[in-house]
């Protein structure tokens, strides 16, 4: 055996130099095993196992033959370690730890890293046996990127699947305390989030931003295929689902103080986009927010902050995504069904009964003017010939002007105590009176 010059650094910087020229220490050698200059190399690392530092080599190496310098382990496998360390417990054990292969990860003597690891980093220890899942991922989770695998996995064992410290969202909210607080505070919680965060996020990283398992809306419609079908099959599609951030422009992914996990109160949500002119396939859509601001008389459902009393959100079968039928033009051959939208909330008798003294104020004596105008075939006037649907300058939502092709026809409506007068672009000035019928066209 060749001579060695060993510099052994122990404890508080004590340096000793020894020159040795023997294959084994002299019989009865009294000094530490490393002092002899033989077994020093591996102990010169920054992190030294306590019993090694204290030269109690015999805690693990029991001398069996002094002459031959032979040793055996007093205990084998993990038992050797558990002689001093607390035994690992857990319903889910990491197989190398369970099999007592402590030294597949730990150096029993000394190492470069804390916890006497055999590699320089924790992650390097793990990927000795596991694939490095961080490769090929564009977005890496912070703790995973720096290799803090043991922030989430106990290397020995736990009571929870995947060696995790706990179950469910707690795995994540231990660090994401703000999200944990949000989930406690908010009334409406998205049920998969209550179950576990990994339904949507990959804990290590992903090809998508935010470590999402898929991009929105695909992520969402993987579970909500009914919404996707509805949106795709709809005759009238809402671009809100295909533009921008899609579902998450309207819904919170985790929780919300608004029902259906909406980002805002429903009407404010609609107006957050419909506060400007929007391009649709056919035409420019007016700004509904402007309409509501400029017209003080808001239609009942809107006064109650609902747009969905009339419109769908994910798509619909009727023009303008209306939830029930409503004629799109100025004229419509009368059929009650065609006004199903209005008759969700208003009585159909309003336009069905020719004579009435109660159903409507729009009557001349008992002659129902609604019936007269609307209940015609083939050229009944639709409600839009006189009314605004969202809001109006006048009570009863009588419009100032109504669209007739290229012309915005003025209505020139004036209300009186018992009736009203109009001089629309349709006929000469006519009046109606609920007390005594006005004769607008004298009998010849
Ligand atoms: C905590 C228990 C423990 C202590 C203390 C310990 N060893 Fe070891 N030693 C081991 C184990 C376990 C192995 C088997 C190596 C393996 O499986 O990686 C080993 C292997 C060895 C080997 C042979 C294999 C090799 O790595 O070259 C030598 C030499 C050795 N130890 C010397 C020492 C000396 C010298 C000391 C005291 C300074 C010491 N050991 C203290 C556990 C210990
Ligand atoms: C003779 C007692 C003894 C035996 C046997 C023993 N250790 Fe230790 N070990 C200690 C002491 C003492 C410490 C330092 C105090 C502590 O951290 O608990 C320690 C610390 C450690 C540490 C922590 C080091 C750090 O920097 O955090 C690891 C890892 C470790 N031992 C692994 C093992 C392994 C693996 C075995 C079996 C091969 C083993 N020990 C056997 C006494 C022992
Ligand atoms: C798969 C690798 C691996 C195996 C196998 C393994 N450990 Fe560890 N052990 C680690 C890592 C990594 C740490 C450091 C944890 C940290 O700092 O987050 C650690 C830490 C320790 C510590 C320091 C205190 C603690 O619990 O954090 C001790 C002691 C320890 N291990 C003992 C053992 C014993 C005994 C065995 C065998 C029964 C064993 N280890 C098997 C990877 C392993
Ligand atoms: C010595 C090889 C080895 C090392 C090193 C190792 N593992 Fe493992 N690990 C295994 C084996 C074997 C299994 C069991 C695989 C199986 O059941 O399919 C496993 C399983 C796991 C599992 C899944 C547990 C389950 O319930 O299915 C996780 C999580 C895990 N290891 C994390 C780690 C982490 C984190 C590290 C680094 C601290 C690490 N492993 C280091 C060998 C290793
Ligand atoms: C933020 C917590 C977290 C961190 C950090 C983390 N993991 Fe995981 N890991 C998990 C969770 C949660 C699962 C279970 C995934 C599931 O159920 O879909 C898992 C699963 C695993 C599995 C088993 C299933 C699989 O995907 O192969 C292995 C192996 C694993 N992790 C290794 C690692 C390694 C190695 C590191 C460090 C580079 C690491 N993990 C860092 C949370 C984490
Ligand atoms: C050990 C602490 C820790 C744990 C546990 C943890 N995270 Fe993280 N996570 C972080 C840190 C640190 C960041 C980076 C924060 C930043 O850049 O603002 C982060 C970032 C994220 C981001 C991106 C946030 C953003 O605004 O870009 C998501 C999404 C995320 N984590 C989800 C999870 C999920 C899901 C889990 C559970 C599987 C989890 N985290 C567990 C520490 C943790
Ligand atoms: C139903 C799918 C889903 C689940 C389950 C889920 N997330 Fe998310 N998460 C998302 C989506 C989608 C985004 C991106 C939101 C956006 O772009 O507006 C996101 C973003 C995040 C962000 C960054 C943005 C923010 O709001 O702070 C964090 C952090 C986060 N999630 C953590 C978690 C945690 C922690 C859990 C478990 C408690 C969890 N997520 C469960 C879908 C989900
Ligand atoms: C892992 C499956 C899953 C994913 C992914 C998922 N959801 Fe859900 N979502 C559910 C379940 C389960 C419910 C509860 C259904 C119920 O109560 O009928 C639900 C309910 C909802 C609700 C209804 C809440 C209510 O109170 O009416 C909305 C809105 C919703 N999810 C939107 C989304 C959005 C947006 C995404 C994508 C960011 C998404 N979901 C991703 C499973 C999922
Ligand atoms: C323009 C805003 C908006 C967009 C974009 C949007 N939603 Fe909705 N969503 C709503 C509103 C508003 C409701 C409540 C409907 C109601 O009150 O009738 C709702 C209700 C829901 C519901 C629960 C009630 C139901 O119809 O089953 C689910 C689930 C849902 N949305 C999923 C999604 C998914 C998935 C996406 C993306 C593909 C998405 N939403 C896109 C506004 C939107
Ligand atoms: C009482 C039923 C009703 C309510 C409530 C309602 N709408 Fe409408 N909306 C309609 C009808 C009917 C049309 C078609 C008008 C037409 O073409 O004459 C329409 C048309 C629209 C249009 C297309 C405008 C254009 O330029 O053609 C948008 C955008 C719209 N509504 C958004 C909203 C929003 C946002 C709300 C809530 C603030 C809302 N609607 C509430 C019935 C309603
Ligand atoms: C994220 C932005 C956004 C939100 C929020 C939004 N919309 Fe839209 N909406 C659009 C865009 C863009 C269009 C025009 C393109 C199209 O779909 O034709 C549109 C079109 C419409 C149309 C006309 C559809 C047609 O083609 O005839 C109606 C009606 C409508 N939205 C109602 C609503 C209602 C009701 C809400 C609230 C539940 C709402 N929108 C919320 C972006 C939004
Ligand atoms: C979701 C229910 C709902 C729908 C659908 C609906 N309305 Fe209304 N409407 C109301 C409510 C509520 C009022 C307010 C009644 C009140 O203040 O007495 C109202 C008031 C009116 C008024 C003024 C009545 C008054 O006394 O001031 C007119 C005109 C009107 N609606 C026309 C229509 C037309 C035309 C349609 C079809 C396009 C329609 N409504 C669809 C609920 C609805
Ligand atoms: C030719 C014009 C005209 C048409 C078409 C018209 N209305 Fe009216 N409507 C009026 C006038 C004018 C009033 C106000 C009567 C008054 O208060 O003196 C009114 C009042 C109403 C009212 C308030 C209650 C009442 O009758 O006094 C409702 C509701 C109403 N209309 C619904 C409708 C619906 C629904 C349609 C389509 C099916 C429609 N209107 C078509 C002119 C019209």
Measured by DSSP, the beta-strand proportion falls in 15-25%
Q: What is the arithmetic mean of pLDDT?
A: 90
Are any ligands bound, and if so which? heme C
Helix content, binned percent: 10-25%
Task: Give the domain tally.
Answer: 4
Taking the alpha carbons of the first and last residues, their distance comes to 139 Å
In DSSP terms, counting alpha (H) and pi (I) runs of 4 or more, how many helices?
16
Oligomer: single chain
Helix-and-strand structural type: alpha+beta
For the biggest sheet, the summary is:
3 strands, antiparallel
**Rg measurement, Å:** 41 Å
Low-confidence stretches: 1-22
Anisotropy-based shape: rod-shaped
Count of DSSP E strands?
25
In the sheet with the most strands, the strands line up as 23-24-25
Polypeptide structure, described:
20% of the residues lie in helices and 16% in strands. With 444 residues, the protein is an alpha+beta fold. It has four domains: 4-74, no CATH class; 92-187 and 194-211, no CATH class; 214-320, no CATH class; 324-433, no CATH class. A hairpin with a 4-residue loop joins strand 13 (278-279) and strand 14. The longest helix has 9 residues, at 177-185. The radius of gyration is 41 Å and the shape is rod-shaped. Residues 1-22 have low confidence and may be disordered. The structure holds heme C (13 copies).
Blueprint (SSEs and pairs):
Blueprint: E1 4-10, E2 14-20, E3 47-48, H1 50-53, E4 62-65, E5 70-72, H2 78-82, E6 92-93, H3 95-98, E7 110-111, H4 122-126, E8 139-140, H5 142-145, E9 157-158, H6 170-173, H7 177-185, E10 188-189, H8 191-195, E11 205-206, H9 218-223, H10 225-233, H11 247-250, E12 255-256, H12 266-273, E13 278-279, E14 284-285, H13 288-294, E15 297-298, H14 300-303, E16 331-332, H15 349-352, E17 363-364, E18 367-368, H16 369-374, E19 380-381, E20 391-392, E21 401-404, E22 407-410, E23 413-415, E24 419-422, E25 430-433
Bound molecules: heme C (HEC) (13 copies).
The site of one heme C (HEC) has 18 residues, from helix 8, helix 9 and helix 11.
